[in-house]
Amino acid sequence: MAQFVIARNPEPDSRLPYLLWVPLGQRGVLFKAGGTWPRTSAVYCHPIDGWPDDAEVLERLPVRSCVRRGAAIDLVLDRGRENRSQFVFTTARGREVVFWQSPRTVKQSRPGVRRPTARAAGIPQLEILVDIREQYPYRFADQRVSVTRRPLPAGDYAAMVDGRLVATVERKSIPDLISSITGSKLKYAMADLAALPHAAIVVEDRYAAIFKQTRVRPATVADALAELQITWPAIPIVFADTRALAEEWTYRFLAAAAHHAGDDAHGRDRLADLPEPAPPPAPDPTAAEIRAWARTAGLDISNGGRIPVEIREAYRHAHT
């Protein structure tokens, strides 16, 4: 019976500490891998050409089935638990990558929820502006949205009402979020977002993904996010689990901002129709001011005591 082999990578400085031998074909398919099984998340793998002679074998597992189906290899082990998995060949940022996933990790990355198709805020057709620098933009294919590509002063997606931007959303993946935090770029981006009436940052992953990072201290990222929220409390940072849910949240947020922008404009028009408020009354004059005026007016007044009523009336009449 064919065997699936897991060994320890003899390269001491490698970030992929394990080797995998997948029994496909005569020579098999070989990978360096970040884990021994995709239990909580997909495991990143890198194809290799040969099997090192000094590799320490950790497990030899009997294989029930190993079949190549398109851009994936389906592997079924001959054991009761943790027996089904899949190696998926895909591309990311222009290079080929391989992810080893199991039914559990696929379910976590694709939660069993159906996105609503109802129009957000009752808007029949929402126009969403997409920044021209966004390489893989949301398509909003399931919603009644028209997309226009144009440069945006801040964010990746925006809504416009009566020729003015009313809201914008900055999209982040976990690697992009971490790099912008460690490079201090996110602080400047938050300042630009704060200049708009409504703004938000949506992250295409769970908050828990921060604490699975190995290239940066998770506490550093968590502290930075907390500090950003304290500094700019009006700009929410939303973790939306998946890219699809992040797209859905972006659509609802921009639609709500566009809807309330009309309410704000109506309120400004009503305020503009109100009469100008009367100026506040002038403060009462002091006794010294009244005495000084009375002397310049040729009126007889003492240096102390109460000021006569007729002099106060004369002062008020002269200054109205």
TrEMBL record:
Gene3D superfamilies: 3.40.50.10130, E3-binding domain. InterPro entries: E3-bd_dom_sf, ERCC4_domain, Lsr2_DNA-bd, Restrct_endonuc-II-like. It comes from the Bacteria. It holds the Pfam family ERCC4. Residues 265-286 are annotated as: Disordered. The keyword DNA-binding applies. Residues 127-207 form the ERCC4 domain. Keywords: DNA-binding. The keyword Ribonucleoprotein does not apply. This is Histone-like nucleoid-structuring protein Lsr2.
